[in-house]
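Handout, page 2. Input:
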Amino acid sequence: MKKAETEIEAPEDAPLIIVRRRFRAPPELVFRAWTDTELLRQWWLGPEGMVMIRCEIDARTGGTWRMEQQDRDGNVYAFYGEYLDFDPPRGFSQTFRMDMDGLRDPPIKETLAFAEDGDGTLVTARSLCPSMEARTGMMASGMEEGMNASFARLVDVLASESGADAFTIDRVFDAPVDLVWQCFTRTEHVERWMVPDGFEIVEQQADLTVGGTWQTHMRHPDQGDWHVGGTYRKIDANRWLVFTHKWTDTPNGPGDETLVTIEFADRGDRTHMRFTHDGFADRSTRDGHRGGWLETLAHLEDHLATLAEAA
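Output:
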């Protein structure tokens, strides 16, 4: 098998689909990309144009999972199942079902194995369908096209995670894009959500122009005062927001300048946001910032929910 080739096998004597693909990353990382919600959101999407609007995983034997995708026309495709066996990083088995009108067939049983293969990982996925007819339908559903598109994105995710300088967070918010944009750019919104857990904003200022600066003074009851700021590099309302990010005064001293790039996409009543933070000097600093932004973006979801209730 070539290094970037997906191999699909459909035996004549069993309703089975076998997929093999080699990735240039260690088994621990490839396994995590298959079972971590933050990474799955970025690549397990099928054809171009899909976004993940729900991704829930209870990663353990007996745990359940559910993923919902939305296409550009607003159609939602839902998948769910249960982990029958969970053995990181060697593999897992699960049931796989579609939760859509007219598609409530018996579950497919999937078994995935992650084996070290030179400087990479060989992934072998075996899908046992309930019948030969079900397998034929699955093979004819555009499975191969969607799989190849997903795997191409997975290659990018693995490359990013293998480095130490950047991370990406993918979210779909249940709010229109103009409101999400305002939450990132208007002080009256920013003050209500843009801090990690345990912090409060003491003061926030922003000159929302290209070349303009922003500063935030936040406080933690145990960790003291933290000051962060930067310069706006790109502003395209409802589409792009790019700014530098630098801790100027903290209990740990100042930090290096990094770059935040946020892409917003209108999905009707929803907004797809792709948040990338790069320029970190080491993996520990990167992962610490990722944790902080995950907490912060959870506050944004809460703020948007509060606004919806008040509307």
